[in-house]
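Changelog-linked ticket: DQA example.
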Amino acid sequence: MAHKILVLNGPNLNMLGTREPEIYGHTTLDDIKRLVEARASTLKLDADFRQSNNEGELVSAIQSARGHFDGIIINAAAYTHTSVAILDALLACSVPVVEVHLSNIYRREEFRHHSYVSRAATGVICGFGAEGYELALDAISNLLNANLLNKKK
Ligand code: DQA
């Protein structure tokens, strides 16, 4: 059976395309969804792509991923830098987590250099724009396949 991946997007990412294009480019969230679905199908993953502007909704989505998804890819957007609640939900979920950011947060303002999400993530991909989501799918697919191999040994 295909591994199921929850791809979660935080606040203001629904504005991609028009939002600060000098930082985030012109790619819309719908474009990213299409890229994710195409890469997921190549990797034989089943991706569920979602966005919310609401911290509580993101926490609830992560909570309900337990037992239903094999991995989480998350761009928590601004909540990356503020949300202990999202961190705690990810830690409680106990599935592999890959953190994504379109921009290189380490080249930007200092308040973006700290990520709560990173404490729960196996790895972080940032600065590659929309391609970061495809790289994250590659990474999570490799992680899950390696876990399968280890279980068979
Ligand atoms: C972002 C980076 C965050 O600092 C910012 O608040 C976002 C988007 C990114 O994808 O580059 O909303 O997560």
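Closing comment: Example verified and attached. The mean pLDDT is 96. Helices lie at 21-24, 29-42, 55-65, 84-93, 131-152.
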